[in-house]
Amino acid sequence: MRFASLGSGSKGNSTIVVSGLTSILVDCGFGIRSICARLLARNVDPKTLTAILITHEHSDHWKGVEALSAKFGIPVYLSAGCFKARNLSSDSKNSKNFKIIDSHTAFDLGQFTVTPVPVPHDAREPIQYMLSDGTFRLGILTDLGHYTPHVISIYSKCHGLLLESNYDEEMLARGPYPQFLKDRVSGLFGHLSNRQALDLLKSLDLSQLQTLVLGHISDKNNHPDIIADVLSNADLGGAAIIFAEQDIGSEWQNLKPAL
Ligand SMILES: [Zn+2]
Ligand SMILES: [Zn+2]
């Protein structure tokens, strides 16, 4: 299994995950030209995508979904709440591509078993995903105000993890955001701070972890150096630490069988 962030942050998020002949895009928060360029830069032809998985309806995860799906006939998997929040109707021309999933039930998609994970975030029915190809487990976990016991149970023992480390608490408090936005970001249904990400990592079984990608990093209220400093307090067992950037995402991360 291999994966790459195609870009991550408040201006757009998308991740590509490949195993065998199955290629899954998780979210598409970039316009169609931008997402196609980001895929082609990693030698993925957009028309070969197996599916698009959606976490929630916020535009930094949704922007190019409908155009990309319509252009190449790619099925889109999403929660019923997200479908409603986006005002999609079952008689619109693109509706045959939309597949509503149960937020609590795993399903098979090509080479993958996809486990949706409900998370606390200020969207209609937000979910995150664990993807398994039978050998490796990749967890994708962004856009949550706090982590739950369910999150800890699902995301333990993954080989790859793309985790939100959105803001530094002090920078957010002193930073330029208006108070309502500070309250939203730091609230129970906002985003994970660096400290929360650290606490979560300390709660997870990381014995299998090979690669940790930190994503959805605020450009106003955080900095990779601060995250690296905070994470120096976690025992990551030698896993590689990568920072996904807004404009360039990350390089391919290849998960490898244990020697
Ligand atoms: Zn987001
Ligand atoms: Zn969001």
Write the layout of secondary structure elements.
Layout (H helix, E strand, L loop, with lengths): L1 E6 L6 E6 L2 E5 L5 H9 L10 E3 L5 H4 L2 H8 L3 E4 H6 L12 E4 L5 E3 L2 E7 L8 E6 L4 E5 L7 H7 L4 E5 L4 H6 L4 H8 L7 H10 L7 E5 L8 H8 L8 E4 L9 E2 L5
Parallel strand pairs: 3-4, 4-5, 5-6, 10-11, 11-12, 12-13
Antiparallel strand pairs: 1-2, 1-14, 2-3, 7-8, 8-9, 9-10
In words, what does this structure look like?
The chain is an alpha/beta fold and 259 residues long. It contains nine helices and 14 strands. The protein has a single domain, classed as Metallo-beta-lactamase, Chain A. It has helices spanning 32-40, 59-62, 65-72, 80-85, 149-155, 169-174, 179-186, 194-203, 224-231; strands spanning 2-7, 14-19, 22-26, 51-53, 76-79, 98-101, 107-109, 112-118, 127-132, 137-141, 160-164, 211-215, 240-243, 253-254. It has a seven-stranded mixed β-sheet. Strands 7-8-9-10-11-12-13 form a seven-stranded mixed β-sheet, with helices on one face. The two termini are 16 Å apart. The structure holds zinc ion (2 copies). One zinc ion is lined by residues 13, 58, 60-61, 143, 216.
